[in-house]
Design a protein that fits this description.
The protein is α+β, with helices and mostly antiparallel strands and about 70 residues long. It has one domain (about 10-60). Helices cover about 30% and strands about 10% of the residues. It has helices at about 10, 30-35, 55-60; strands at about 20-25, 45. It has a two-stranded antiparallel sheet. It is elongated, with a radius of gyration of 20 Å. The model has no long low-confidence stretch (mean pLDDT about 75).
Length: about 70
């Protein structure tokens, strides 16, 4: 399997929430891990952008959190 290296600064503006990032290590510890696990991936991460986590305060205040009977 051929690997391509992409630097974070080169791709950060194109990343979207829910994207998966697959990591292949370049250090010796990564090579050792690959040998013993027979895996070419060292780690996996999921992108969650902070602006997607913000709560719209106006919408939240439109209705009560607890309905009173």
């Amino acid at each position: 399997m051929e690997h391509s290296t992409v630097l974070y600064d080169e791709t950060k503006d194109t990343l979207k929430t829910e994207y998966l990032a697959l990591f292949h290590g370049m250090l010796i510890i990564s090579k050792i891990d690959e040998f013993f696990t027979a895996s070419q991936l060292f780690n996996v991460g999921m992108v969650i952008k902070s602006e997607d986590l913000l709560i719209n305060k106006e919408k939240l205040l439109e209705r009560p959190l607890i309905d009173v009977l």
